[in-house]
Amino acid sequence: MLAIVGLAAVTLVGLLLVAVLTARMLAALHRLRAQAARTRGELEPHYRAYRARTRGARQVVESDPE
Asked: What is the pLDDT along the chain (66 residues), one digit of tens a residue?
């Protein structure tokens, strides 16, 4: 009887540990997605300008008769 109670207690502690770690992982995922959205918001205008400049440079290179 004591062994069954011990196994049940260990199982509950294990399930609690899994629940805590899952909650921490989901919170970290939420923070990571928020950081990615902020970074995307900061970099996207620069990326568009960069693409416009490289597109212009590519046209100059392609039209250069060598």
From this structure: 999 999 999 999 999 999 999 999 999 999 999 999 999 988 888 888 888 888 776 666 666 665
CA gap 56, 38 in Å, rounded = 28
Distance of alpha carbon 15 from alpha carbon 53, whole angstroms: 55
Q: Could you tell me which of 46, 42, 49 has the C-alpha nearest to residue 57? A: 49
Residue indicated by tokens 């693409």: 51
Tokens at residue 41, please?
């918001």
Q: Concatenated DSSP letters for 5-60?
A: HHHHHHHHHHHHHHHHHHHHHHHHHHHHHHHHHHHHHHHHHHHHHHHHHHHHHHHH
